[in-house]
Design goal:
Helix content is 30%, strand content 21%. It has helices at residues 6-16, 32-48, 65-76, 114-118, 152-156, 175-183, and strands at 21-25, 28-31, 56-59, 80-83, 95-98, 109-110, 136-142, 146-151, 166-168, 187-189. A 4-stranded mixed sheet has the order 2-1-10-9. Strands 4-3-5-6 form a 4-stranded mixed sheet, covered by helices on one side. Strands 7-8 form a two-stranded antiparallel sheet.
């Protein structure tokens, strides 16, 4: 499993333990297979909308199953993301994309993801893995440190955590989410977490 990128690790769990619960939010669950298929569908939708490898998406959605699906979809097509809590996002849409990370918000355009989340596909194969471990996975926005660029390799290092039930109640964009999913465990989603940052 050396040099794997984040979404590939999740895909391996979907292939080997697909009916295991990946996410549980107040009794609403997604198995690893369901999460993977839904993310594949959203990834193809983003590609159809013009999103390309190296692109950046700002996602302003509540903490939950839909957010996890969009973030995983973004990684699957070689993009990186920044998560902003609703009401504190610099863009007025649930999701906005640019061809690359840019400080000029005028470069971002809205991209529709809600309909795909409300009507998820039932089958969708994995996309070709075009991502390298050194590629950006997310950009955290920290009031003290500014923009923090996080590559796949940094997040993938969390895969050594034990496969025990975990809670996604902290940073909604990176470490709590991916640490749980890469371990192959069931991740309980806390819907109103104490946000650790605005990333």
């Amino acid at each position: 499993m050396e040099n794997l990128v984040v979404h590939r690790i999740v895909e391996q769990h979907a292939a080997t333990r697909g009916e295991t619960t990946a996410l549980d939010q107040d009794g609403d669950t997604l198995t690893y297979r369901e999460l993977n298929v839904r993310a594949n569908g959203v990834a193809r939708h983003l590609l159809d909308g013009g999103f390309r490898r190296g692109g950046h998406i700002i996602v302003s959605m509540g903490h939950g199953l839909d957010l996890a699906t969009v973030l995983l979809a973004t990684l699957k097509i070689g993009g990186c993301y920044t998560w902003q809590p609703p009401g504190r996002s610099p863009v007025p849409w649930p999701a906005a994309v640019a061809s690359k990370p840019d400080d000029d918000l005028r470069q971002y355009r809205p991209i529709e993801v809600v309909s795909m989340l409300r009507h998820p596909v039932r089958t969708s194969p994995n996309l070709p893995v075009l991502t390298r471990p050194t590629d950006l996975a997310c950009i955290l926005v920290d009031t003290d440190a500014g923009r923090v660029m996080v590559p796949h390799s940094t997040i993938a290092a969390l895969r050594t955590m034990p496969a025990l039930p975990q809670v996604w109640d902290g940073d909604a964009s990176t470490f709590d989410l991916w640490a749980g999913l890469m371990s192959g465990t069931a991740l309980s989603v806390v819907t109103a977490p104490a946000f650790l940052n605005a990333a």
